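Task card 7
Instruction: Convert sequence to structure tokens.
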Amino acid sequence: MKKRFVVVLLMLLALVATACAGKTAAKRTLVEGDPYSDTQFLMGTVVTVKIYDKDKQGALDAAFARVQQLADELTVNQKGSEVDAVNKNAGIKPVHVTPSVYRVIAAAKHYSKNSEGAFDLAIGPITSLWHIGFADARKPAQSEIDERLPLVHYPDVVLNAKKQTVYLKKKGMAIDLGGIAKGFITDEVVKTLKAKKVTTAIIDLGGNIYVMGKSPKNVKKDWNVGIQDPKKPRGTAIGTLPASNMTVVTSGIYERYLKVDGKIYMHLMNPKTGYPFDNNLMGVSIVTKKSVDGDALSTATFDKGLAGGMAYIEKLKYADAIFIT
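Output:
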């Protein structure tokens, strides 16, 4: 992939996929009117899937069934989930998990190591302390943060591929897959749709966008992924990015935040300080083929700031980045 960096000053970024690539109707087996479409609130976010192929209501239903299945397994705040079981047994015993859960935890540990801890799947003790995005969100005391920081240490997450188990070495440790789960689920939805012979679709899991195939308006044109103008109503773009069979994943300060004494604290946590990231970035978008990669990279890159983030992405052959300062 040819490396691209875009730095946008004094703007916030969100992404909306549109099919505005041309006016020539392509000769494909696509719906003539509105696509098969559904929007549901799952995993604390809005999930939208639009399918443009004919006779694919069953594929749409299968996509949402897969999202719900994975949400039940991966959500850290849901009692009875597999991640909840892993956390409850921290310092006690390894926990056997399903293949899907093991894969996403393994991917999370890979990026924890790859980013040198900028992304850390063991951030759970800190995210639960701040709980930004929930009704009980608060700014914790420094003593509380200091007490929990030693538990944020991804090397203490022990994986056994043969037995398919996950073990957290220290009592009080907790993994939080919020920085990678949406990407993993997006990729699983793509697999589900491909298995159902879908060729043209948009998948949007709370801003994790994947566009399948070419634009439904022109078989020779890519989709346009619109860059949302934060000062205008949703759907108003300030620019577009051509994409086909690609994902665009954004992390930014505008997604979820806590405001205390006039200061805004974003939901993305710095594993080294125990505080939300506070640097020269307002948003980072990653463009790549796998949404799970984009999810983890957007968080890790945000941690490193503009210069460090650009240097980090430059080393990767499979991802491009948009930085907003």
